[in-house]
Design brief:
With 308 residues, the protein is an alpha/beta fold. Helix content is 35%, strand content 18%. Strand 1 (2-6), helix 1 (12-22) and strand 2 (26-31) form a beta-alpha-beta unit.
Length: 308
């Protein structure tokens, strides 16, 4: 199968393109800057420019599009313009941040805590544009995966599969999700204190290698106009992650829950962000390829190599 990966140079993208090639698929990457690290066909352009994208589609003639950087409905509308009426299968990366649970977690409304886990039919956020005024980044003002998903699923030219990803970690993680405990343990801290709310909070995570595998399964399937949660089967608590990191780093200090402290970031950690992944496991046969400890150990090694 010939795949055009839109946005294939950061974090998930290189892992995805490598796995695609290893699985025998033809790969081309469409992105803004030509990268010497990419070993596959590269086409330079802007996914927000229909003419750029149309030239890429004509050059590659893909069987499927894997869109990794569709964060708003604009990217879907541009893709429709580029296709110029031609039908195309597309696997599109979304996020579990579309769920109402994320709204409650961020404290964007006074809505009550939502029961976890969230399956694909769970309520979505009523508050749109969750990062406006909260994140200083170019994408933040227009970011809204809910509207992106609706545009893709209603499209007359896209046979879309939406993958709602949990929090992704692994080598080259730009968010460095486990950096804080890794740094403390590397510095041989004798004691790490966790606020009670953070110690008990659970969120769906997924190693980048397993995310790439799930995307390829969706691509190879006959699924169309479907939505799947993609994350690990179990959502560990903050305390459980700390304990696993400690064991893998051979750190023997104490991890203590501070019953009186709360995390000072305004988040409502009584709201767990856990995704039910039963649908993708049943319909597409998804299961993790990388043992949890192996993936976490690799993440720790990468962080230790890159700590200034």
């Amino acid at each position: 199968m010939k795949a055009l990966v839109i946005g294939g140079t950061n974090f998930i993208g290189p892992v995805l393109t490598r796995q695609l090639a290893q699985s025998g698929h033809e790969v081309a990457v469409f992105h803004r800057r030509i990268s010497p690290e990419i070993q596959y066909g590269q086409i330079q352009g802007d996914c927000n420019d229909a003419d750029d994208l149309r030239r890429a589609l004509e050059a590659v003639a893909p069987d499927v599009i894997l869109h990794m950087v569709a964060w708003s409905q604009k990217q879907i509308h541009v893709l429709e313009q580029a296709l110029h009426g031609g039908k195309m299968r597309a696997v599109i990366a979304s996020s579990v941040d579309v769920y109402k649970a994320y709204e409650v977690l961020l404290g964007l409304s006074d809505a009550p805590v939502v029961a976890a886990p969230c399956d694909e039919q769970a309520p979505l956020r009523d508050v749109l544009y969750p990062y406006r005024g909260r994140v200083e980044a170019d994408f933040a003002h227009d970011y809204e995966k809910i509207l992106m998903e609706k545009a893709a699923m209603r499209s007359a030219v896209l046979d879309a599969v939406i993958l709602r990803l949990g929090m992704v970690y692994g080598r080259n993680d730009p968010r460095h999700r486990f950096l804080e405990p890794i740094q403390k343990m590397r510095q041989n801290a004798r004691r790490i204190e966790l606020p009670k709310d953070a110690a008990g909070f659970r969120a769906s995570m997924c190693h980048v290698e397993d995310v790439a595998h799930g995307i390829i399964l969706a691509m190879e399937s006959h699924a169309a106009r479907e939505i799947y949660n993609l994350a690990a089967r179990r959502a560990l608590s903050g305390m459980a992650w700390h304990r696993r990191i400690a064991r893998l780093m051979h750190w023997h200090g104490d991890i203590v829950v501070d019953e009186t402290a709360a995390t000072a970031d305004g988040m409502n950690y009584a709201q767990h962000l856990v995704a039910d992944t039963g649908k993708i496991r049943k319909q597409l046969g998804y299961k993790e390829r990388l043992p949890l400890d192996e993936g976490l150990a690799g993440t720790i090694r990468w962080e230790l190599e890159n700590i200034a």
